[in-house]
Each structure stands twice: as structure tokens, then as C-alpha cells.
Design a protein that fits this description.
With 211 residues, the chain is an all-alpha fold. The protein is 74% helix and 0% strand.
């Protein structure tokens, strides 16, 4: 029967697998350019624009016995509601002259990731916590191992990479809520599956940005 260990393993695997994407491989090889950075930011705009709405929807779907989960998701939605503005600021600060991402559509891979988040919010709202945990784990791994090199290669100032500089990794409150929430085997199956699926789909977003 699935349990907490399966979920934690899935999150750890997500952090370890993320560097396999094309962006990270190009950063390691020193083969990254400003157009690549802009491509990633354009996709991140759509993901960040939907993030708060997804968490709020998941909170609304929580049953009464999941009050702590609901409260966390509403708080998280409030925290991330303006992150899309950071992305737009970074595009402007680095001289982006392409189509405003607010006027375009995300790539199919990006749409798949966003759609999956809404699916989880509707079908298993508690598993939204698993997706957030994966994003935190990936953010921590990326900031420690790749973002500094990316900024060095592109000679970016903090004001030109505010999204990555401000994005955090570990969230003790999130893990405390997960540990305190009573979950049966089915709940843990959803948690582990959501972590694995979100990891795969999110990594694909970075792959297609480098196509």
C-alpha cells in the first residue's frame, strides 16, 4: 500500500531527474543564449499566471475535513498570485521585443502541464500539495546548481532575473501540512502519482523551450 515514503521518493526523483532537460544540459555546456532565456520566460509566464488560480480551485474542492490543506492552498495562492509579473519584468529588463506572452498561447507541452494541474485540483485537490512540493524541490535544485551559471553566462543582473532570484525552494509549512493530514492508501497513490506526473510534464516544458 502506498504511503508517505512513496511520495517523498517521487519528489526526490523529480529533483534528480530535472537536470536531464535540454535547458540544464545547455547551461552545463555553456551553450545558452538570451533567446533561450526569453523562450523559457515566455513559457513560465503561462505557468505562473495559472498557479494561483489552480491552488485556489484545489482549496475550493477540499472537503471540510481537509481544513488545514484548504488554508495552506489559499495562503499559497496569495503568495504566488503576482509571480507572473516578475516574468514580464524580466522579459522587459532583458530587451525582449517579441509578442507579449499575454497575447499568445503556450506550447503544447506547457498547456499539458497547466491542464494536468487543473485536473489534479478537480479530481484530487490534496494532491495539489504534491505538485507544489515537486516545484519547490526543482526550484531548490536549479537555484543551487544551474541558475548561477546561467546568470554568469548571460551576464544577467538580479533585476533581469527576478523570477529565479525570488523563487524559493524548501517549504517547511507545506511538509508540516502533508504530515499532519490524515491520508489513506488512495490519497498517497494520488500524491505519488501527481509528483511523478508533474515532474515529467514540467521537464518537458523546458525541453520544448529549447527546441
Amino acid at each position: 500500500m502506498a504511503g508517505m515514503d512513496d511520495f517523498v521518493s517521487a519528489v526526490n526523483d523529480a529533483a534528480l531527474a530535472f537536470p536531464e532537460n535540454k535547458l540544464c544540459r545547455r547551461v552545463v555546456a555553456g551553450q545558452i543564449g538570451l533567446p533561450d532565456y526569453h523562450a523559457v520566460l515566455q513559457l513560465l509566464f503561462h505557468i505562473t499566471y495559472e498557479g494561483a488560480a489552480v491552488s485556489a480551485l484545489a482549496a475550493a474542492q477540499c472537503p471540510p475535513d481537509r481544513e488545514a490543506v484548504r488554508a495552506y492552498l489559499l495562503h499559497q495562492a496569495d503568495q504566488v498570485k503576482d509571480h507572473w509579473r516578475w516574468v514580464l519584468n524580466d522579459l522587459e529588463a532583458t530587451g525582449f521585443t517579441g509578442t507579449d506572452p499575454r497575447q499568445g498561447f503556450p506550447s503544447p507541452a506547457c498547456q499539458s502541464y497547466i491542464a494536468y494541474n487543473y485536473y489534479v485540483a478537480l479530481r484530487a485537490p490534496v494532491a495539489r500539495l504534491a505538485v507544489i512540493a515537486v516545484m519547490n524541490a526543482i526550484a531548490g535544485s536549479f537555484s543551487q546548481n544551474y541558475s548561477a551559471k546561467l546568470f554568469q553566462i548571460l551576464k544577467l543582473k538580479p533585476s533581469q532575473a527576478s523570477f529565479f532570484f525570488r523563487s524559493s525552494g524548501a517549504d517547511d509549512e507545506l511538509m508540516a501540512v502533508i504530515r499532519a493530514t490524515p491520508m489513506d492508501g488512495r490519497d498517497w497513490l494520488w500524491m505519488a502519482n501527481a509528483a511523478r506526473t508533474a515532474s515529467t510534464l514540467y521537464r518537458a516544458v523546458y525541453d520544448t523551450a529549447m527546441a
